[in-house]
């Protein structure tokens, strides 16, 4: 492949949206109110829309005649390059909103930078995505404020989620070989530019929500290199179930 | 109010409905009208939200991104439809929480069809095609029912639901044009969903208790048996188009009557499921109740936050 | 005893130039959430460009029992309508 780095780069962004959408998809019908079910589904649908654009583009670059679904459904676990954060389970609503918010802040900063990509397709995806992701961030941020401030119980639960998810935030800023190559070509987003901003913004919101940032400086990473948490195998066995059981069929 | 006065009001009320006037929530209405509407609208709402569960079961396993998005959007619509219908109930002074309470304690019913399991991907096709097909037959006439909020909710529901049956039929079509395994999967789904879909249109007219009054109030425009016949007549040619066999050896075109004759429905099975002993009654209820119970701390937190915010605003104003 | 989320009435402007129209209701703990929920519930098929939310308990409604005194007196004021006035056919555009 001529553009291996570009392909790898797109895949890693696409996988973040795909796996997060998959996690949100588990929740439809099981949320605290009908209104939150409807909202969560909207976020999931936005993310699926983004992944379809990414995978279609990645398949084109790959040039092997593959489809968006081949890329979304038929890779080995090691070939999925999403960050560990998005694969964390829906333990309770605090985890769902915590995971969402910690990703949304990054996602919006990322998209805003991607708007300036020299790659026109990526810039176009960013242009559409920014509006979606801005809303996601507003939604999840509002919920963190409600849960952090609400009751003693909700504050404890929200803090528990933040404490557990915090260790996955640093990986968002890891720069792989493909990332570095794409940054140098003016296509990829240099995430180091907004790392500080990311943590400043999150600190401000958590403080407003009566929540604290964990003191631990130890972080867990691996997803961007394809080394996932134990959850990933189960996510993929759902995601890939049909395509693996009934290979080479159209649906 | 004396009995005579009430009788007089009732006559005026019935005459308004007969003239196709709409009844609005604050209008005077017979207590029975109010109760019947709360019962029917809430059952309808409950069916929408319980109906999210068997289909939600396949969201994470949908075979393509396009199908995943369509299924998510469909299940989301069902949440929306439940919400519209609960809102219509609330105009009659009963809260959504009270209605949930009735559902969760088993006092209120929902459509029995959702107590059957969704075991293959083809079930997503069969539900859209057959279950939504049967539902539409029931729902379209309700767009013109006498109670304004119900009629308005149904207009929105029907408009949004028009894609549901199509996405189901499209899933079936794709399977039927696919490999033998896919065709078998489609046939198997039809075999399992056909009879429950016929039952979904309600007991036979001889056994149906509410029909006459419901017809007067335009809660029902056709009898259960007529609706069932309409459903069969429109669905059989669609099955032929798919190349599938309806699992009824007695199904035959009746030239004289211009309709399909069909076999005996197993009403014992119907009543067994209605009474709570279907394959998934317990699971559906458990999922529903645990979603509600697990969400309590979230709902409480949001309310507490809103109150604190309000109090702060007031304090700042002083 | 926990308190339920209050009910909100949702008004949506479908496009600029049109008035906000009552779309339905929903539950939310506060106005911000009501707006967000309304966006997700009532405009997911691009039905709107602007949303108003009003807590249902803040709406005062007229009582249908008073409909006679409220609305019937207007019925015989036909002179408020253009068709009340006789004009010869030759007069156009009036």
- Please indicate the percent range of residues of chain B in DSSP E strands (runs of 2 or more): under 5%
Q: Strand tally of chain B, please?
A: 2
The poorly predicted ranges of chain C are: none
Beta-strand residue percentage of chain C: 15-25%
Largest sheet of chain C: 3 strands, antiparallel
User: What is the string of SSEs of chain C from the N terminus onward?
Assistant: EEHEH
Task: Measure the end-to-end span of chain B.
Answer: 48 Å
Question: How large, in whole angstroms, is the Cα Rg of chain B?
Answer: 22 Å
User: What does the largest sheet of chain B look like?
Assistant: 2 strands, antiparallel
Biggest protein-protein contact in the assembly: A-B, 48 and 50 residues
In summary, what is this structure?
Chain B is built from 12 helices and 2 strands; from the N terminus they run H-H-H-H-H-H-H-H-H-E-E-H-H-H. Chain B is an all-alpha fold and 318 residues long.
Give a structural overview:
The complex is a heterotrimer of chains A (251), B (318) and C (94). The radius of gyration of chain A is 18 Å and the shape is globular. The model of chain A has no long low-confidence stretch (mean pLDDT 97). Chain A contains 11 helices and no strands. Chain A has one domain (4-245): Ferritin (Up-down Bundle). Chain A is mainly α and 251 residues long. The longest helix of chain A is centred in the middle third of the chain and has 30 residues, at 120-149. With 318 residues, chain B is mostly helical. Chain B contains 12 helices and 2 strands; from the N terminus they run H-H-H-H-H-H-H-H-H-E-E-H-H-H. Chain B has helices at 3-18, 31-56, 65-90, 96-104, 122-139, 148-176, 180-200, 211-216, 224-242, 267-277, 281-294, 296-317; strands at residues 252-254, 259-261. In chain B, strands 1-2 form a two-stranded antiparallel ribbon. In chain B, helix 2 runs antiparallel to helix 3 (65-90), helix 5 packs parallel to helix 7 and helix 5 (122-139) runs antiparallel to helix 9. The longest helix of chain B has 29 residues, at 148-176. Chain B starts with a helix and ends with a helix. Chain C is of the alpha+beta class and 94 residues long. Chain C is 18% helix and 22% strand. In chain C, a hairpin with a 6-residue loop joins strand 1 (7-13) and strand 2 (20-27). The radius of gyration of chain C is 21 Å and the shape is elongated. The termini of chain C are far apart. At the A-B interface, helix 2, helix 3, helix 6, helix 7 and helix 10 of A face helix 2, helix 3, helix 6, helix 11 and helix 12 of B.
